[in-house]
Amino acid sequence: MAVDLVEQPALREPSQRTVPRPLPRLPGSERATPPEPVASVIVSVDPAEAPRAIQPAPPASVPRWLARGLALARHPGVWSIADQALVSGTSFVTGIAIARCCSRAELGLFALAVSLVALARAIQEQLVTAPYMVFAGRMHGSRLATYTGSCLAHQLQLTLAFVGLFGFAWLGTWWTNGWSELQTLFPALVLALPCLLCREHVRQTSFGLLRPGAAIAVDFVATTTQLGLMLLLWRFEQLTIPHLFLAMGAGCAIATAGWLLALSNQWTIQNKRIRYDFLRNWRLGRWALACHLVGQLSPYLMPWVLAGSHDISAAGLLAACTTLVGPANLLVTGYANHLTPKAARAFAQGGAAALKPIVLGTMQLFSVILGLFCLVAWIAGGSLIELVYGASFSDATAGSLLTLLALAILVNSLGTIAGNALWAMERASANLRADIATLAVTLVSAAVLVPAWGALGCATASLVGAAAGAGLRIWILVDVFTHSAAPTTATPHPVSPGLVHPEPQR
Predict the structure, then answer these.
(1) What per-residue confidence (pLDDT) applies to 77?
(2) Could you tell me if 130 and 291 are in contact, meaning their C-beta atoms sit under 8 angstroms apart?
(3) Is the dihedral of CA 67, 70, 76, 77 positive or negative?
(4) In this prediction, what percent of the chain has a pLDDT beyond 70?
(5) What are the tens digits of pLDDT across the range 227-251?
(6) Within 13 Å and on the Cβ side, how many CA atoms surround 133?
(7) What pTM, to 2 d.p., does this model score?
(8) Tell me, what's the pLDDT at 464?
(9) How many whole angstroms from its chain centre is CA 345?
(10) What is the Rg, in whole angstroms, of the alpha carbon atoms belonging to the chain?
(11) CA–CA separation, 104 and 386 (whole Å)
(12) What distance in Å separates the CA atoms of residue 275 and residue 124, rounded to the nearest whole number?
């Protein structure tokens, strides 16, 4: 028997919430073994108070400002930026330690080696982790675990290929007696490279799984181990570039092993799925790799061009200023880790109409924060470099160099946001035109400016190239937004027709 009880709005106080009331127990119902069906209760709720009726209010003892702060602290974007701050902070401390304990030339040598590692990591990211960021949001349960395991297998295979290439480069420098400064560094670099790449893969996978806390845990273990070993090496006066790379590799190895054990239920490797998932990633990642190599090759080449046309000490000055603008770059890199999966999900659920406000809001945020950073670099750049690195890095062009690098990061951040939006819309090939413009303008500018201006020419060429690429990429995105209509029927997990392949037979 069901009884409908209607609560009249006029009979209740405005501050009271309407909740279902239990029905009176009928006589003799105590002896019934199975419980009687609960009567349905119809509650009349004022529309103005409907949101308050379904959302529990926070405890009265918690101040509103504290509740908002706690809500902001739980935001995935804040976690992503905090993780990148941890990584960039460690790089910042490492650069200062090298500058203080070693020489300007050794800092330049470290920058050359890091550029090689960064290039390998970028190739891995475009082929493995970036497609994972897009496709992982469309999978759930065992399928997501299998896909995660397949990407882990792809990463291990790619790491073995990079170890072989670095080994051949080591033998080449030894056989030709060229770049003699790198001959003692390559053995430690080859040993540390697998650990560095695996650590980067698992932290990016954590963001794809929407587990930023796992990424922070990985980076915390890796950075604390590295800094502890660096302190130990400094205590015994053994802090050299090869020993530093071994310390970095040890920290990354411990952190990666912990992630694999702690999240073992999030990944599983099935041999029959590895090839299928590779083809799925390749059809999207090949365009991303081409775009990245075309558009982002110049930052990897600049230290080598500068060291070849001048000397390794000039590359050391460029590395010092690049490290100082790291706090600005961490905002771009850290929030991009959160922006990519967020943009992909927004476009999958609401099309271009849902993606556009995310893009515009992020551009406004970056313009304000990075604009203020550029102003600080212009006012106190030269004094800041001498204060942090010492008198050996004092240079007449240091302030201008720092300002140009900060402006390049600001311009590049706007292009990064537009590129991530195109990536989320599965239009990675549309980025290729902007990346070609970036590479062409940067190389032409570097060929003219670097021989005459040195490190200042590198920074100027980077700024001009970033402006050309960002402008063209934003123009492409505006054109795509104009010709893209939101889907008429919301589909929670759409798949592009160009990425559909037959499932393997089970």
Answers:
(1) 58
(2) no
(3) positive
(4) 77
(5) 999 999 999 988 899 999 999 999 9
(6) 27
(7) 0.68
(8) 94
(9) 16
(10) 28
(11) 13
(12) 17
Report the alpha-carbon distance of residue 287 to residue 292 in Å, rounded: 8
> Does the pLDDT value for residue 403 go beyond 60?
yes
Residue from 86, 70, 74 nearest 217 by CA: 86
Least trusted range by pLDDT, from 124-138, 194-208, 254-268: 124-138
- Ranges of H-type helices in 7-75: 50-54, 64-73
What is residue 163's predicted lDDT score, i.e. its pLDDT?
Answer: 93
d(CA 219, CA 85): 10
CA angle 165, 168, 173 (to 5 degrees): 125
Residue 169: in which H helix or E strand, if any?
A: helix 141-176
Structure tokens at 371: 């604009």
Cα–Cα distance measured from residue 203 to residue 333, given in angstroms and rounded to the nearest whole number: 13
Complete DSSP assignment for 395-450: -TTHHHHHHHHHHHHHHHHHHHHHHHHHHHTT-GGGHHHHHHHHHHHHHHHHHHHH
Find out whether 461 and 445 touch, Cβ atoms under 8 Å: yes
In whole angstroms, what is the distance from residue 211 CA to residue 423 CA? 21
Residue 316 above 50 pLDDT? yes
Burial 211-220 (b: 16+ CB within 10 A, else e): bbebbbbbbe
Residue 159, pLDDT above cutoff 70: yes
Interacting residues of 29 by C-beta distance below 8 A, sequence separation 6+:
36
The domain limits of the chain are 76-286, 296-486
Q: Which of 148-162, 271-285, 322-336, 398-412 has the lowest mean pLDDT?
A: 322-336
CA 387/CA 179 separation, integer angstroms: 32
Q: Beta strands of 28-164 (E only): which ranges?
A: 42-43
